[in-house]
């Protein structure tokens, strides 16, 4: 067993995990942070995205023991301090960027690092950045729209539909 | 997944010592190995993580060469070689998706030598040198066929040196489900001539298309490859495309790269 210690959403946590325990298993089963979803478990879908030291990674494709000593942020850590939705989350709600919501935690985590690195992305930038995030419901248009809106840019419905 | 012990050495020396144990395996970004272990296609009893070894994580630009540490992530290469070697940066920036690029490493990609991986094309197309804990291997001698390399048991890739070309371009025809190339071509123009490396196409893994290299070294234009034939005998045939289709793509991707560079 490996004794591990990390910061999750700003809080120090400790645990004892096997070598093979995935980060997503530690988050969901040990910490009961079930906002991080497992869609495929084969590194394909992005539902399990979290931030490790500020960068997106697939929590199903990293061992918990590898996050020892690191800072992890999950969807539970994204809302504003008063519990209200942050700008990106609110934009997803306003623009119907989700239907069943299964992919949404991963989408929000990806959108967050995208907008940090590229505050005014084009629609193509957004679609490329979301290459590893699969959504079975929305057809992506409204997700792209939500991220455009969250970046403070005008949302051009006609252009989006034509893409 | 079968259980294993995860060790995190902080020096190359300690990593190599840990790898002497039977059933021990190097582990970098895990973007290939971890899913392989989930599928129980690999079951090492000890994983030796290389990501905690600082001396394996660097990008250094020196004169007309780029040196990349073995455990450097795709994201870091994409960011830090943008000015010195844009052809390489652009290849790294298109591997998989952002999360894969934040974890996956150049050493893991080269050691794995997936027949559809991107980095082998850059290494072979640049005539790079692969450094290990015990020797240096020219890219021309490193890749020995699908998932096969010149690496010995327990030998780790510690770095790669790329000679910077006048210009280079990676044309990747994406297989949309996996985001790996269906076929991709890396074309690099050096004073000594043009190199053309093809990935995703051959049963024998990455290869140099020497006829195209000769033709392009004489005349650098897409027309120069127009009448060449790509032999499809060893080409991969699967549900995504026939061997003949991949042979055709090889030519089309090469011509596109050359056009973009002309
Ligand atoms: C969704 C997805 C999309 C992807 N798309 C692409 C793509 O478009 N193009 C592409 O090229 N790749 C792609 N990949 C693969 C990705 O680039 C991997 O990161 C890479 O192939 C392996 O690097 P790694 O550091 O993750 O290695 P690991 O998975 O840790 O290891 C891979 C193998 O190499 C060995 N190894 C690791 N490091 C070393 C070393 N330094 N020396 C010797 N042996 C070592 C391991 O023992 C193992 O056998 C994709 C992966 C995923 C999950
Ligand atoms: S659950 Fe991790 S990528 Fe799908
Ligand atoms: S909203 Fe259902 S999977 Fe995206």
Q: Return Rg of chain A in Å.
A: 16 Å
Termini Cα gap of chain A: 50 Å
Per DSSP, the total helix count of chain B is 11
Helix content of chain B: 25-40%
Number of domains as seen in the coordinates of chain A: 2
Q: What's the quaternary structure here?
A: heterodimer
- Strand arrangement within the widest β-sheet of chain A reads 2-1-5-3-4
Total beta strand runs of chain A: 5
Percentage of β-strand residues of chain B: 15-25%
Poorly predicted runs of 5 or more residues of chain B? none
State mean pLDDT of chain B (0 to 100 scale): 97
Q: So what's the CATH class of the largest domain in chain A?
A: Alpha Beta
H-E order of chain B: EHEHEEEHHHHHEEHEEEEEHHH
Parts with pLDDT < 50 across at least 5 consecutive residues of chain A:
none
Specify the CATH architecture of the largest domain in chain A.
Answer: Roll
Organism (chain A): Palleronia aestuarii
Keywords (chain A): 2Fe-2S, Iron, Iron-sulfur, Metal-binding, Oxidoreductase
GO molecular function, one term (chain A): oxidoreductase activity
Domain 2Fe-2S ferredoxin-type (chain A): 2-78
């Amino acid at each position: 067993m490996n004794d591990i210690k990390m910061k999750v959403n700003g809080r120090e946590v400790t645990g004892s995990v096997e070598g093979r325990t995935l980060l997503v298993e530690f988050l969901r089963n040990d910490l009961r942070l079930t906002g991080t979803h497992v869609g495929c478990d084969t590194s394909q879908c992005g539902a399990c995205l979290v931030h490790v030291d500020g960068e997106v990674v697939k929590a199903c494709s990293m061992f918990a023991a590898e996050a020892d000593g690191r800072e992890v942020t999950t969807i539970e850590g994204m809302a504003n301090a008063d519990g209200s939705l942050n700008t990106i989350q609110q934009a997803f709600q306003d623009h119907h960027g989700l239907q069943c919501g299964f992919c949404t935690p991963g989408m929000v985590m990806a959108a967050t690092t995208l907008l940090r690195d590229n505050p005014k992305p084009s629609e193509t930038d957004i679609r490329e950045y979301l290459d590893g995030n699969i959504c079975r419901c929305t057809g992506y248009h409204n997700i792209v729209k939500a991220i455009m809106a969250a970046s403070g840019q005008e949302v051009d419905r006609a252009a989006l539909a034509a893409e | 997944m079968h259980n294993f012990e995860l060790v995190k050495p902080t020096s190359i020396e300690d990593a190599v010592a840990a790898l002497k144990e039977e059933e021990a395996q190097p582990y970098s970004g895990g973007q290939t190995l971890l899913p392989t272990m989930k599928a129980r296609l690999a079951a090492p009893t000890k994983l030796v993580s290389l990501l905690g070894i600082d001396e394996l994580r660097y990008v250094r630009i020196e004169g007309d060469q780029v040196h990349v540490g073995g455990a450097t992530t795709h994201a870091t290469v994409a960011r830090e070689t943008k000015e010195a070697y844009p052809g390489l940066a652009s290849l790294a920036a298109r591997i998989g998706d952002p999360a894969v690029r934040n974890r996956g490493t150049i050493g893991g990609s080269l050691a794995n030598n997936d027949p559809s991986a991107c980095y082998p094309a850059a290494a072979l197309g640049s005539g790079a040198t692969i450094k290990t804990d015990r020797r240096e291997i020219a890219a021309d001698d490193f890749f020995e066929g699908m998932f096969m390399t010149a690496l010995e048991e327990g030998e780790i890739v510690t770095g790669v040196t790329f000679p910077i070309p006048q210009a280079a371009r990676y044309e990747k025809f994406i297989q949309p489900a996996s985001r790996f190339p269906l076929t991709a071509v890396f074309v690099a123009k050096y004073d000594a001539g043009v190199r053309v490396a093809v990935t995703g196409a051959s049963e024998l893994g990455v290869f140099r298309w020497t006829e195209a290299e000769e033709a392009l070294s004489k005349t650098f234009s897409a027309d120069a490859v127009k009448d060449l034939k790509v032999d499809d005998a060893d080409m991969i045939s699967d549900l995504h495309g026939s061997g003949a289709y991949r042979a055709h793509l090889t030519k089309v991707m090469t011509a596109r790269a050359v056009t973009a560079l002309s």
